[in-house]
Amino acid sequence: MELRQLRYFVVVAHTRNVSRAAEELHIAQPPLSRQIQNLEAELGVKLLDRSARPLQLTEAGRFFYEQALQILGRISQLKDQTQEIGATGRTRFVIGCVASTLYGGTPDLVRRMRRRWPNLQIEILEMMSSEQITALKEGRIDLGFGRVRLADPAIERVRLREEALVLALPAEHPLAQTPDPVRWSALSEETLILYPSQPRPSFADEVLSLLADARVSAGATREVRELQTAMGLVASGIGVSVVPASAQRLRSSDVAFRRIDDPKAVSPVIMSYRINDASARIDDIKDLIQEMYEAKPDWLELSGSRVKFRSP
């Protein structure tokens, strides 16, 4: 599959007319039609319903069109950013993080990094803990903040803190009507919404492990990809979810939160970086994290975190 084919298909899907698409692309109609046919043959599905006038997208075609738009947009962004870095000479530093850390310390740290290094181009990519390990080894990110305990000989891991877990409930749920901590046994009659569904192992497995330790099984489980999706389903009354306490900042008008009556109901925040990274910036970032914790920001108190990290 070639980027040229994606561009061709996007124009055809937008115009719903091969002749008009060929004019926009400044190519003849027959080679354009062949490229679309080759694309369909490679995928093994029909993307266009040619019996309709104007052309209509099949279900597979609609999905492919949406994804192709995102890929081409990302390629355009990649080109622009690469040219900017080449023109300005700015150093790029990429941080990978699980979504829940964006409601805790990651934004605070990035603000401090920007003040410390105003010419540093800092980027944040949302990715799962296991994805961060691969991205670090491939050089796609420079630092990772995750929650799952993963071991790799090429990666140094530093446990920064233990964050309390809370149960997210629909605002009108009976358990939301009292401030008392909730026991795991209360989940035996609930639909438990777990995230992320992929990749595994993940935070979902950490939650299931805590339930297994308490010898409790949820009434039913449902897995979703993202924290935001889990919270939306909770707000809709579909189930409950176990989330890091900092996620309380995500939404509070239609979701209630209760602490879990178990001292083991915590989730680590783990910083990961390449073990052979000779950059002095990693040591400086550790100092910034120490300063951040010593300042006792509001989000740290909200998350009920126990700080484990001490900068050397």
Describe the structure.
- This protein is α/β, with parallel strands linked by helices and 312 residues long.
- The protein contains ten helices and twelve strands.
- The strands form three sheets. Strands 3, 4, 5, 6, 9, 10, 11 and 12 form an eight-stranded mixed β-sheet that branches. It has a two-stranded antiparallel ribbon with strand order 1-2. It has a two-stranded parallel ribbon with strand order 7-8.
- Strand 3 (92-97), helix 5 and strand 4 (121-126) form a beta-alpha-beta unit.
- Helix 1 packs across helix 4 (59-88) and helix 5 packs across helix 9.
- The longest helix has 30 residues, at 59-88.
String of helices and strands: HHHEEHEHEHEEEHEHEEEHHE
What helical percentage do the residues reach?
40-55%
Oligomer: single chain
Silhouette: globular
Mean pLDDT over the residues: 89
Number of strands: 12
User: What's the tally of helices?
Assistant: 10
Q: End-to-end distance, in Å?
A: 50 Å
Q: Let me know the largest β-sheet.
A: 8 strands, mixed
- Strand-pairing-aware structural class: alpha/beta
**What portion of residues belong to β-strands?**
15-25%
- Uncertain regions: pLDDT < 50 for 5+ in a row? none
Radius of gyration using CA atoms only: 24 Å
